[in-house]
């Protein structure tokens, strides 16, 4: 599969500038007793983006990334969504935003759960592994960029948009994140099929050698 989905959201329309780092600007007052906790919530999107970038930059060593995903993503979900609702009332109870988080998390998890297994398969050649890592790198590089787009849309000071415009762009990002997950899932299935085929071929060859005393 060489036809990869290319991000064309917002930037191509010339409407929004992508921030250098994903970070929420909360305009609503935050109670003093919750300030420390809320500050942590604001960084959750950045954490998820950084996990994706870590995968892209350090594809050969995924153990730390897998551990981070296991330790952080589950408990971060409710906290992230709760803090998100404080940014703009228009996103309250808007399931598309929650869906973006879900598919983003599933995409990174799908990669980390499978690449270690693929890399550990003795019947795949180094060039095949390299091709798999390269394919994942392209897909994930596009995927993590969507977090910046979402952050820009939901940051009141970064984008002068009406609520209707925000919802429209959130829908577009949701569609793209979902499609990216589908691409990663498809690419993963192809990789798994190749690994299974080569494993079976190698095992069949070994069985025949034993039968013939070779």
List keywords for this structure.
6 helices; 214 residues; signal; disordered N terminus; rod-shaped; single chain; 69% helix; 0% strand; mainly alpha; Conjugal transfer protein TraI
General description of the model:
Helix content is 69%, strand content 0%. With 214 residues, the protein is mainly α. The chain has one domain. The longest helix has 49 residues. It is rod-shaped, with a radius of gyration of 21 Å. The two termini are 38 Å apart. The N terminus is likely disordered. Keywords: Signal.
**Strand elements, count:** 0
Unreliable runs: 1-44
Strand content bin: under 5%
**What is the total number of structural domains?**
1
Largest sheet: none
Helix-strand sequence: HHHHHH
| Rounded mean pLDDT score | 67
- The helicity comes to 55-70%
Overall morphology: rod-shaped
Number of helices, where a helix is a run of at least 4 consecutive DSSP H or I residues: 6
Q: Could you tell me the radius of gyration in angstroms?
A: 21 Å
Structural class: mainly alpha
- State the end-to-end CA separation: 38 Å
Protein name: Conjugal transfer protein TraI
Keywords: Signal
Organism: Hymenobacter nivis
